[in-house]
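Materials and Methods. Structural model of Vacuolar iron transporter. The 227-residue sequence of Vacuolar iron transporter from Trapa natans was retrieved and submitted for structure prediction as follows.
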Amino acid sequence: MESTTGGEIWSNIVLDVHDEPTYGKGDAGEAVDMAESPDSEVEFSVRAQWIRAAVLGANDGMVSTAALMMGVGAVNTDIKSMIVAGLAGLFAGACSMAIGELVSVYSQYDIELAQIKRCIQAGTSKREEAAKMKKKLPCPWKAAIASFLSFVVGALVPLLAAVFFKSYVLRVGMVVAAVSVALLEFGWLSAKLGKAPVVKSSVRVLVGGWLAMGITFGFTKLVGSLV
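The predicted structure was written out as tokens:
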């Protein structure tokens, strides 16, 4: 089982966003897109599994931690309460994401491995298909590490935005502003990785984050006024 460091995971994500297709010359002198080769498709398929986990983890870490801090801040304006709630959310969420991703991807791994074994037993006609499937097998530990590290990175955004401001109104405003900018960045990143429309993806991620923070703040404020 191969191990991967956090630096390698995030450097690979950056490379995936900025890498451009390479072109060569075919026999007829025409440009050939080397990025469309079968090997390149397999590599992208394997990378996409933990890239998805990293992007999801970062977005979830940022939104859930910010929403938790906003919820606590709705009933307690003390900076210590907001920071402690954010840190608790960071560690609980990161561990939960990593373990959940590990279990989920391991289940996917077992299912695909069983399918490969059935293909091999079916005869030589299926062995080529089995070989391709084996190259695309997911790596549960990569996905788990990517989820954990990315959740921590995402959760640090609202924490760092809040820790330097004693004024409650300014603190909440900085959390919302910092998270909004980061959500737009993650929307752009998701669009680039998935080759989706950038504006639509960014707006969708931003609105989703606003809804999560707003609903949590409003619900907690309501409960706090009734208790």
